């Protein structure tokens, strides 16, 4: 996306990092905030809260807070059975977030899981998520977010429709 390219160019590349994923999160005030997952030149995975604001016509980004993936103990999706954008990240302190959408929450958890496998291989606890959407070996885990969730719902609905139209044998 254009925002990801802009974030990477204006903020992460200037500090020697590569941006892997970002999601918009709800936060107080009029400014926009993003949760970002990036990798440093030293191959440390960093999670940052980035403030997005405008100065005149220019877009500006500023890291408000940052943590290392190595310090992340758990990601809690709150409720795996409901379509909600809320999740917690457990470091020494628990941080509660509201993502822009449920799909973006899953995309971020998927990215952290993948970066953990690539760089740390630690036991990262991911709880209260539907693991069909988290695991990278699943078709549904591709980074198409809402479109694939909708596709899966349509698939199930069409199966139900077919089953309801099938004649039942009368005994």
Question: Can you walk through the features of this model?
Answer:
With 171 residues, the chain is of the alpha+beta class. 32% of the residues lie in helices and 33% in strands. It has a four-stranded antiparallel beta sheet with strand order 1-2-3-4. The chain has a four-stranded mixed beta sheet with strand order 7-6-5-8, with helices on one face. The longest helix has 20 residues, at 146-165. The chain is elongated, with a radius of gyration of 19 Å. The chain starts with a helix and ends in a 6-residue tail after the last helix. The mean pLDDT is 87.
Q: Which residues sit in consecutive blocks of at least 5 with pLDDT less than 50? A: none
Helix content: 25-40%
Annotation field: number of helices: 4
Average pLDDT over all residues: 87
Strand content: 25-35%
Separation, N- and C-terminal Cα atoms:
58 Å
How many strand units? 8
Strand order of the largest sheet: 1-2-3-4
